[in-house]
Amino acid sequence: MKLTRQAQSVFSAIRSHFADHGEAPAIKQICGLTGIRLECQVIRHLDALQEAGLIVRERHKKRSIQLVELPHGCCPNCGHQLEARALC
């Protein structure tokens, strides 16, 4: 599944927040980090990331986002298998 640019931005924001704070960001924080105005849009991107296997989360539970460890050879930006060293 190919991710949209905004979904990739959400994934990057989540990874950065984990690295900086050691916990998952709240949806409002993701809005602030990505410039996405509506929480429902962030939720749709989270659904896409979960469907792609990049995150797991429990709906209706605060800060329940967990990153899935990517196998070797996957793009750190979107999780797709890398071919010939091309990043997404």
What does this structure look like?
With 88 residues, the chain is mainly alpha-helical. It has a single domain, classed as Winged helix-like DNA-binding domain superfamily/Winged helix DNA-binding domain (Arc Repressor Mutant, subunit A), CATH 1.10.10.10. The protein contains three helices and two strands; from the N terminus they run αααββ. It has helices spanning 5-21, 27-34, 39-51; strands at residues 55-56, 66-67. A two-stranded antiparallel ribbon has the order 1-2. The longest helix has 17 residues, at 5-21. It is globular and about 30 Å long. The protein starts with a helix and ends in a 21-residue tail after the last strand. Residues 84-88 have low confidence and may be disordered.
- CATH C-level category: Mainly Alpha
Distance between the termini: 13 Å
Number of strands: 2
* Helix share, percent: 40-55%
CATH architectural type: Orthogonal Bundle
CATH superfamily: Winged helix-like DNA-binding domain superfamily/Winged helix DNA-binding domain
Low-confidence stretches: 84-88
Percentage beta strand: under 5%
Can you list the strand order of the major beta sheet? 1-2
Number of helices: 3
Rg is 13 Å
Shape: globular
Q: On the 0-100 scale, what is the average pLDDT?
A: 84
Provide a compact summary of the structure:
The chain is mainly alpha-helical and 88 residues long.
